[in-house]
Amino acid sequence: MISGKTYDICIVGSGIAGALVAAQATRQGLSVVLIEAGQRFPLAERLKLLRRYQNLGGLYFPWEYPGRDNYVDSSAESIGVGYQLERYRLKGVGGSTLHWGGRAQRLRPSDFRTASTYGVGIDWPLTYAELEPYYSAAEWQIGVTGSPHALQSPRSRDYPMPAFPFSIDEQIWPPVAERLGISLYSAPFAINSIPYNGRSSCMAYSACNMCPSGARYSADTHVSEAENTGRCELLTLTVARRIDVRPSGAVAAIHATTVDGKDLEIRAKNYVIAAHAVESARLLLLSNCGNHSDQVGRNFMEHPFIKAGGYLPSKRFYPSRVGFERLESMSYYDGAERHQRGAMKLEFEFAHDPLRDMESEHLWGERLDRHDKERFGHWLDINVETEMQPNSNSRISLDPEEKDLFGDPAPHVHMAFNDIDHRTQRRALEIATDLLQASGAQDIKPVGPRGLSFPAHNMGTCRMSDNPALGVVDRNCRVHGTSNLYVAGSSVYPTGGGCNPTLTIAALSLRLAEHLMQSNV
Amino acid sequence: MSTEKHRVSRRRLLILAAVGSAVGAVIWLKPMLRRSRSQQVSIADLSAPAATITRDMGSTLDTVITFIGALFGRALSDTDSAELRERLAETLSQQPGRAQDYSVLAQQLDRLARDAGAAGFIMANTAQRGGIVDQIMHIDPGATWSRILAHLSPGRRQYYRMRSTTVPDLVWLYRYSGVPWRARGYDRWPGIPGDWHEYLTAGKTNT
């Protein structure tokens, strides 16, 4: 036990969900302990880390822990491609916001009602209207740039910062879109277009996933804010291993172990598991907690990206002047087609590096050099972020063989698609191909196997439902059958829509923080 | 005649058995080969001192840099070579285990160069280097057969690792260095700050 202390709130995970709950609670005078499996990655060291990533590469952001963060993935057996978890999560203070791209979108009202509106998926127990005030608060807390557009979700407050205007490269799309009747807008980003909350405006490092300037929000800023109140204790390199839940449904403690082997028993009035869709589910499974209806770990979802690209010799683009493109379209998001397929959001990119074609096109030596000279700055990509349906066969479970550093079962990832997902992905590829053709691009083709990749949006596994038979947590994110255990983060999503999940995580976390403060009074 | 027939059929039988076993092995191994486990890299000590490059490692890095130039079909300038050397040295300081990978690659390159009639890879002419790159790149690291062969001997395992790990790592290092960007006319690339307002104007290729 930590000095015999009982905190108001014990939070597992210091990503955006845990960090916002900690910041809100400490502002209101509550005491918090934050358990984080990873270490700190201070802003001052980001440039050094960027250089290391550029040299060593291989992984998206190589901050996993060898021998500790083991996992097994059998997704290739069901969907034909593997799910590389080490690329799709980040263990460190700030969690996955340390390597996110910064897209900060609200879900659309229809996303909360897919079953009743379209007859697919499942309805959330919350409505968009209930979550809207928290979306607005989240945008102002993390700092979001944006501008109103025709298909945006209803909002009660302006964006705190002006949107980034379309780049010179992006000017190619508006005339094409107008011809096709598609509307475009500048995507909302948690990247400062002006100095905001003590962080600089974008300095165009073209390396958003590590943003050395700090212009792109990362949740370690809210962890620091909580610590600065003197009411938040952060335990880094400490792994939560068991939740001690009593037969009454009250959690008595969380048992954790530091990486150097020190066992801790941590007590609090309330407990929040905010450890990412994979580890939150694993911790509940390891603790035999909340799994009365065999829902923990199920309905593991992503936003399968369907990507196609094409060569446009008549135009010259300037890839990587700034590392992010802001043009998006929601024209294929809703509508009658959604009875048959999932939501889709389109993103338009110019950053394709022809040197990446080396393996897929068997190019090397002088042929590769010619290819680079010909194609660099003449390539368009369209990325369709698609909705994946909740599917009980898509799941996180405990692997019967693989263990972590402490001898606990490692997570087993098994992603599965259903017929609607396949239909959605086929339609997404058609749409991307049609748009590229309309732009005049040549040599149009899917990027990667069937154009499929994943954007690291882990969702599901601890579904929110008012019905304990269908979910793990209730509308307040409290685990069914417990009195003081909550789950925060995208793991509670009943459906994932087609929009990036982080802003919704933030909104739900602010709502949870408010609930916890009320219950702590 | 009948003995000959008998021999042929026995040979066919043996060939059939061998093919059958191979197919069986592939079918049996395939799920295991497709099921992936964590691929992790170590967290480097951020304050690790720069590696001291020994004379042997210096010549290994010369060979590796020459290989990178041949792989991308580019004549590297002194600035390019110096930057790649600096980045390779940083890599070694953070992951010393890669020294072995680079040595294996350099040895293989020199061996293939000698087979092609040159004294070593660095001394090989452009055509010889191109031929050697072809030999290495024609191995498909994703093919099931390549992965099975890699288990047959330590030499094959090394060769497989060279193609499946060392070469992709070098490709990554090159792509994120300044070398390809300079060749494209840029004087700034990811990791060097600029001004996002520049993104609104057309024209200069050197940004």
Notes on the protein architecture:
- The complex is a heterodimer of chains A (521) and B (207).
- Chain A contains 13 helices and 19 strands.
- Chain A is of the alpha/beta class and 521 residues long.
- In chain A, strands 1, 2, 7, 8, 9, 10 and 19 form a seven-stranded mixed sheet that branches.
- The two termini of chain A are 25 Å apart.
- The model of chain A has no long low-confidence stretch (mean pLDDT 94).
- Chain B is 63% helix and 1% strand.
- In chain B, helix 4 packs across helix 7 (154-175).
- The chains are: A alpha/beta (521), B mainly alpha (207).
- At the A-B interface, helix 2, strand 3 and helix 11 of A face strand 1, helix 3, helix 5 and helix 7 of B.
For this entry, give a set of tags.
heterodimer; A: 521 residues; alpha/beta; FAD/NAD(P)-binding domain; seven-stranded mixed β-sheet; seven-stranded antiparallel β-sheet; globular; B: 207 residues; mainly alpha; 8 helices; disordered N terminus
